């Protein structure tokens, strides 16, 4: 708690208005501090879990494993946890770099149709056993001026989620067109959907609708916050419409040129 709110005797006079501004600022600061505290707690928690697993497995290995095959399995599993931690740290670094200096964009002409078609091919390889039908439809060929790597990451994250959260046999489609002077990309899935009370939070760092299940899926809860940050750096926005049990639509709007 940062301190006491000021009493406002008369909100009309100058002192009263000053006091109200002060109280407002105090509230915003308190909110910001709470977010920072929550964030550190989340980071610690997210990194502690894989570390605990690593430690446990290594101890078990040292104690009991005899055959090369047993060591192989342990190393394999350790590697997965290490990769998980690297991924978390990479994402956090990206996010904090972005917050400090604003996101630095390396601008080039990006053919969104080409990019999305290539990404859909890759998305089919994420989990081929699931038998998902994944398709890209380019209604309008669109080239935007943007950062190819970052845009690629945005759509990869969305497709990755669509694959993760859509059960076997489901359908995913990516549609590119233009809408009110912007490029519009919709990533549509027929998956788990997102319950309405969770929707306002899914772009927050580490927010996951179902913590237990997503750990098994390798989810970290940072993909959407990164996606939003990169889209906004381009002067665009990202929206979601979703219904639990039916599926989700994530829509990205991008201006044809940054600042334009
Ligand atoms: P994660 O690494 O957990 O997927 P994200 O930031 O990408 O993290 O997503 C945050 C949460 O939003 C996910 O954990 C999941 O609960 C929900 N979510 C995201 N995309 C979808 C989707 N296409 N269908 C259902 N739920 C989704």
UniProtKB/TrEMBL annotation:
Interval of the full protein contained in this chain: 211 to 470 of 470
Keyword Transmembrane: yes
Keywords from the UniProt entry: Kinase, Membrane, Phosphoprotein, Transferase, Transmembrane, Transmembrane helix, Two-component regulatory system
The keyword Nucleotide-binding appears for this protein: no
Domain (HAMP) ranges: 1-34
One GO CC annotation: plasma membrane
Name by which UniProt lists this protein: histidine kinase
Catalytic activity field: ATP + protein L-histidine = ADP + protein N-phospho-L-histidine
Location of the protein in the cell: Membrane
Membrane topology: Multi-pass membrane protein
EC number: 2.7.13.3
Domain named Histidine kinase: residues: 42-258
Top-rank EC class of the record's enzyme: transferase
Entry GO MF terms: phosphorelay sensor kinase activity
């Amino acid at each position: 708690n940062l301190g006491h709110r000021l009493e406002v005797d008369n909100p009309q006079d100058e002192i009263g208005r000053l006091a109200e501004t002060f109280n407002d600022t105090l509230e915003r600061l308190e909110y910001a501090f709470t977010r920072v505290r929550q964030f550190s707690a989340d980071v610690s928690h997210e990194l502690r879990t894989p570390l605990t697993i690593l430690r446990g497995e290594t101890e078990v290995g040292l104690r009991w494993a005899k055959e090369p095959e047993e060591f192989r399995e342990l190393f394999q599993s350790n590697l997965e946890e290490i990769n998980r931690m690297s991924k978390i740290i990479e994402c956090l670094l990206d996010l904090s770099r972005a917050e400090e200096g604003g996101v630095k964009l390396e601008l080039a002409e990006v053919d969104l149709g080409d990019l999305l078609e290539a990404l859909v091919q890759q998305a089919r390889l994420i989990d081929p056993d699931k038998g998902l039908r994944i398709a890209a439809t380019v209604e309008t060929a669109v080239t935007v001026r943007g950062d190819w790597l970052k845009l690629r990451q945005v759509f990869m994250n969305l497709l990755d989620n669509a694959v993760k959260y859509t059960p076997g046999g489901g359908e995913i489609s990516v549609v590119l067109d233009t809408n009110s002077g912007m490029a519009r990309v919709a990533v549509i899935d027929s998956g788990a959907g997102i319950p309405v009370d969770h929707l306002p939070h899914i772009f927050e760092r580490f927010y996951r609708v179902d913590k237990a299940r997503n750990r098994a899926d390798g989810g970290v809860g940072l993909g959407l916050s990164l996606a939003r940050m990169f889209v906004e750096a381009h002067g665009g926005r990202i929206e979601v419409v979703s219904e639990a049990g039916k599926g989700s639509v994530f829509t990205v709007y991008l201006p044809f040129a940054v600042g334009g």
